[in-house]
Amino acid sequence: MKKNVKWILMAAMGVPLAAAAQSNVTTYGTLDAGITSISNQGGSRNTTLANGMQIPNLFGFQGSEELGGGMKTVFKLETQFSLGDGQFIGGSGFTRQTYVGLASPVGTFTMGYQYDFMFESLSAARLAGSLPYVSLYNLQQGPFQGLGTPFGGLDFNRVAGAFRVPSSVKFVTKDLNGFNAGVLYGMGEKAGSFGTNSTISAGVNYANGPWGVNAAYTYAKDPSINEGKDGIRNWGVGGRYTTSSMQVDAIYTNTQNTFTNARANVYQVGADFKITPTTILRGDYQLMKGNALVTNNKAHQFGVTLDYWFSKRTDIYANLVYQRTSGNGATNAWIAGLPGASDGRSQTALRIGMRHFF
């Protein structure tokens, strides 16, 4: 099937079929669905069929073409959709990642719609093998809408991967003795003002045996903040320690609105344990804390995930997440990924779901 897709795409784009021998195209996807029970919504409990929580529902194409001399072309076209109604999320077309570039013995240069390094370094690289057990519910939202970030404060520190950078150029070095680094620049494309609406990001990763250390920085100027001259600045550091049966990880992030000076800090620790080769238990705790310009709001959040793999491609899981808030302003709890805030200062999410990778 993958070969057929490759030939069809090449023919549709008018690519000479002789080039097929030098290139490859693969299709891939992820499917996630489950039932979530939510406390304190509309004065009672709410039960929903929610999808894309443990992992986004994705479908995409990726490929490369060998050019010789250690060089190759790389590309990715990826979209996100809802299993509940079959509709695309974020509009029609490829809405998740789209890029093309060149890979060389030095590193990889790409152009398109891409993740910044708050996600790539502080989630993907830092969590590594633990990433499949960290759901959207385990990430950041809470009573911090005063930061001025999009999506009601969802993923305000950009670690969950809710944001990609349009019109961006990116370079990531090859691994050298466990070390690699990357930079990204998103062009604001406003005539007469190069920096307006722009994004700059950088990340550094180091792994040596069981240890891993990561750092990242992103400054995304926003058209809604001081006409694109200011925006949201994020930075963070984290790391992990891994053995054959467990992994312990930690992260600190700082989020600041450079126009209002509203800030929030996140301190998070987590660990997962391999109960059997196919059964994984993960727990995490985080403290989210805002400054006076976010009315000194705080949120404590605890999460537990139990995951069982039927095969390398199919698993079932259960999540339990609890958030408790305090502060001087509107302190309604809001666990990331839930459809709305709690009616009070606490919120609980209980979920049973399954995933399939193809």
From TrEMBL:
Matches recorded under InterPro entries: Gram-neg_bact_OMP (IPR050298), Gram_neg_porin_domain (IPR033900), Porin_dom_sf (IPR023614), Porin_Neis (IPR002299)
Topological relation to the membrane, as annotated: Multi-pass membrane protein
A matching Pfam family: Porin_4
Subcellular location: Cell outer membrane
Porin domain: residues covered: 10-327
Top-level taxon: Bacteria
Primary location recorded for the protein, binned into one broad class: membrane
CDD domains found in the cross-reference section: gram_neg_porins
Subunit (UniProt): Homotrimer.
Name used for this protein in its record: Porin
Species this chain originates from: Ottowia thiooxydans
